[in-house]
Specification:
heterodimer; A: 111 residues; five-stranded antiparallel sheet; B: mainly beta; seven-stranded mixed sheet; four-stranded antiparallel sheet; 11 strands; 0% helix; globular
């Protein structure tokens, strides 16, 4: 079963706008990771945030983590058409060593 | 490119048959995990191998089995295929079995069961 939910399920924005995706999960975690997937192919690791971190940046990506609310958000700034993809959050539960994925957000960036 | 390769890219089988999928890990990685991704869903963990031993398994029946070889390449075997086994199968490799380590995914094998 899936670990959590992502919101929204689909998002369509204009190039240059910011995109925000949210992820909620159910159990205590070691870390949370965000992945990108183009057209049903392999997953590309974007960023990892540990349970004792609250915010992390990588280029145009900003991730926040609120362990009290069991939620995370991914912000992509100044979006580009090439950012069109599905984005998944995945958690590593405390004591586990595998990833539990959410249901994904399908992002479409319109040129 | 993650350095993880999978073969074949696509595969069509019929119900009841058996299938073997292959994964070549990134150089130096000793842990491989396999995931099943049904259409429109997130990937689900099947199992993990660390230094040729299975050390974690998700909620999948025993007809899903695997192997990891001394060179750390890996196989996923599925017996008695069912229609619901149609999915994208992803392998991921990393150094060490720590869940905090970044996993590197291959491009996947799309299996269709008719």
């Amino acid at each position: 079963s899936q670990q959590g939910e992502e919101d929204p399920q689909a998002l369509s924005i204009q190039e240059g706008e910011n995109a925000t995706m949210n992820c909620s999960y159910k159990t205590s975690i070691n870390n949370l990771q965000w992945y990108r997937q183009n057209s049903g192919r392999g997953l590309v690791h974007l960023i990892l945030i540990r349970s004792n971190e609250r915010e992390k940046h990588s280029g145009r990506l900003r991730v926040t983590l609120d362990t009290s609310k069991k939620s995370s958000s991914l912000l992509i700034t100044a979006s580009r058409a090439a950012d069109t993809a599905s984005y998944f959050c995945a958690t590593v539960q405390t004591g586990a060593n595998n990833l539990f994925f959410g249901t994904g957000t399908r992002l479409t960036v319109i040129p | 490119e993650t350095g993880v390769t999978q073969s074949p890219t696509h595969l069509i089988k019929t119900r009841g048959q058996q299938v073997t999928l292959r994964c070549s890990s990134q150089s130096g990685h000793n842990t491989v995990s396999w995931y099943q991704q049904a259409l429109g869903q997130g990937p689900q963990f099947i199992f993990q191998y660390y230094r040729e031993e299975e050390n974690g398994r998700g909620n999948f029946p025993p007809r899903f089995s695997g192997l990891q070889f001394p060179n750390y390449s890996s196989e996923l075997n599925v017996n008695a295929l069912e229609l619901d086994d149609s999915a994208l199968y992803l392998c991921a490799s990393r150094w060490g079995q720590n869940g905090a380590d970044t996993q590197y995914f291959g491009p996947g094998t799309r299996l269709t069961v008719l």
